[in-house]
Write a structure and sequence with these properties.
Immunoglobulin-like, binds 2-acetamido-2-deoxy-beta-D-glucopyranose, 18% helix, hydrolase, 15 helices, GH, eight-stranded antiparallel beta sheet, 3 domains, TIM Barrel, Gal_mutarotase_sf_dom, alpha-glucosidase activity, ten-stranded antiparallel beta sheet, 864 residues, Glyco_hydro_31_N_dom
Amino acid sequence: MALLRFIPVLYVASCTLAVVKENFKSCEQSSFCRRLRGFKPEISHYELDLSDIQLTDNAVETKLTNFEDNSHFKISLSAVHGDIFRIQVDELMGLYPRYRPQYALNGEPQAAKLSVVDKSKDHITLQYSDNKATLHAKPFKVEFFKGDSLVAVLNSRGLFHFEHYRTKPSENENNEVEQQKKEDPGAWEENFKSHHDSKPKGPSGVAVDITFPGAMRAYGLPEHADKLPLRSTNGGEPYRLYNLDVFEYEIDSTMAIYGAVPVIYAHSPKHTVGFFWHNAAETWVDITNSKDGNVMSSLVNLVSGTQEHSVSAHFMSESGVMDMFVLMGPKPRDVVKQYASLTGVAPLPQYFTLAYHQCRWNYNDQDDVTNVVAHFDINNMPVDIMWLDIEYTDGKKYFTWDPVKFSNPEQMVNNLTSTGRKLVVIIDPHIKREAGYFLHEDSLANDYYVKNKDGSVYEGWCWPGSSSYLDFYNPKVVDYYKGLYAFDKFKGTSDDVYIWNDMNEPSVFNGPEITMPKDCIHHGGWEHRDVHNEYALTHTVGTFKGLTERSPTRRPFILTRGHFAGSQRFAAVWTGDNAADWSHLAISYAMCASEALGGISFCGADIGGFFGNPDVELLQRWYQAAVWLPFMRAHAHIDTRRREPYLFSEDVKNRIRIALRLRYAHLPLWYTLFFEHEITGEPVIRPLFYEFPEDSEWYDIEDFKIYNGGSHNIPVSLDKILAFYRGGSIIARKDRPRRASSLMHNDPFTLYVALDNKQTASGTLFVDDHASFEYRSKKYLYLHFKYADNTLTSNLIDKTDYPTKEWVERVVIFKPPPGVKGAKLTSKTLGSVDLETSYTSENKALVIRKPGVNIREPFSIKLY
Ligand SMILES: *[C@@H]1O[C@H](CO)[C@@H](O)[C@H](O)[C@H]1NC(C)=O
């Protein structure tokens, strides 16, 4: 450890990182993507039968026919509570059932009332609140209106295609030559590198286009290591959604990585519309933005009859039903909340989970763990959670401990908890195929594994070597799996031990594209092809149930790498195996902002970068930046040099210490934002377009300097962390430095009041026990702070109570009125008290000392 101090301050990261692109398919190498993308915009050959419709209070259902091959489908349009339309299309009398994701939706969407406003033989218009949908019979398309504005058109480009299941044309059929000519060579079976996909059910793709007239930009479709606004994919690769363990993923790329959230938002200053493609199969999405080319704009002009901008998306999936939600907006806040109303929100996490996490592949042994924490303490750096990667297990057998290196996990955990810390250990879904390993024996005996197409148990290669994969689609597997987290099963764990689910895309080192073959079979007869993007979610559901039953009074904490729409209800995510490179630091913000819009707010990136050695400048900057993402964890590859923040020079340590303390000071803010997320569905972090910043001001949090909206060049030294409070906000902080967040629970608050140009501000604060579910029984405080007319007031928003020792130690007002002589506090128990005030140098801020009031008590402070 001492040696590292002598490493020159500036050394250059020597690693060269590159994804092996050849391991992953391009659209052209995937039969269904090639087929569906190959269709050119045209007049749709699908037609609705409006002569025979079934109408209920909430839905209209009718028949859709592809008059080219005379295949038939049922289609329904329904209204969902919260300004959402839902369109579902499935085969009529299909050869096989089609898969619907089972876990993404947070229960069945609540139906709303739909009324017919207009009907003829070529169209029907339905209304719900100020939203209208017009189904056109021929050519088939659906127009969506907010008020009188056309905001979305489904199948405007005629790219709707539904490949119905059919029997394979036999070799000796007369028109064989004709058939072969039309059929894509990969339609009935397909090879990629050395892998064969047998495709027993043949081609089954579904695709649709949706155009958003007037839209300037689109956002969404996490997870990609790309900028936040979606790019036009004409001439390039579509955005791919297929959960994959991509070794050394590259940035500025539409390649698939670990997670898939098929929701998109099209935005213009006038309205924002969302589209959720509820499908768990491999999906590719082409984006066309009229600003980026002239081909589309001419087409869109045909549609909307105007010269407006527009964005169009073309969704293509390999299998499953078509289940589509159109989120009618009208603002970014509305579409994101509409999406949250479908797929749910992250439940309030425990307070400590928002603090700083220290991880490495691997902490060598239990003494190493104890030592690292001791060094944080010696160096006055806060840390809450230590993490153990795969090496803690006995030979990569999950739910066991290495008998030599981790011989006494109870004592190690006790050592951690005695200083207010927690532990997180990794549990992956691949199971080592080793005779005598209880989990493998149980799984074989009870038929818990995913199968090959011939019904035998599937074997793949992962960390433990030969492995099989638990099939969480079998309810018995979930029951069994959750039981493994019981304290008497997973020895050495306690209420203070939490779980990291990694490698659950699933990652299979010797599988096609490093994952499971698509013709593997899950419980219920579903092919892996149908459920792939949902697999990680089923894994975290099992873990979530396990932790909830193990510790019924503690909120679970799970980190997952693979994820799907709805994962936010069970787990936090991180951006996976990034690299020690400035570009990866920069993209971490775009990636987490995109996840947040996709419902998954609890997101972070490995501080320092997983692969490679960051130079000290990058490492410091990474800490400084990570303060402002919801999940803050340092992690590093096993081949990297140790980089715990106490290993560096005094200068560097000091900067990182300041960053960590800044994080801890703002924990009340993060916690309040997560509480509000659970109530409202609003993201915890928000890109600027979400908040419409035109008339906002920002206050530099260090020197109180004011910036108006727009763009500014601001010089930053290494000591400078660029962060702003928005004019008009009140932020409650805990500024006393501590070793861990658990030791701050009773600490006092400082209220930072950043006035807007009307000399007003407001803010909220959530306070509770930090760990239990008691907040769901009204045992919490939710406060509203308001500053107006030179008076700060605090009041309860909800009629709830939580007895707390937390109190107000100080108030700091940015851009205060001049000439303040003092302040008067009024509260029920304290009565009327005069408070000391003083200005900072240059009168940029006013400090009010020691209000002393308990945070539970409503109060006012008037300046005079
Ligand atoms: C726990 O801490 C004590 C005191 O520092 C130490 O002696 C012991 O080895 C630690 N135990 C483990 C399992 O880390």
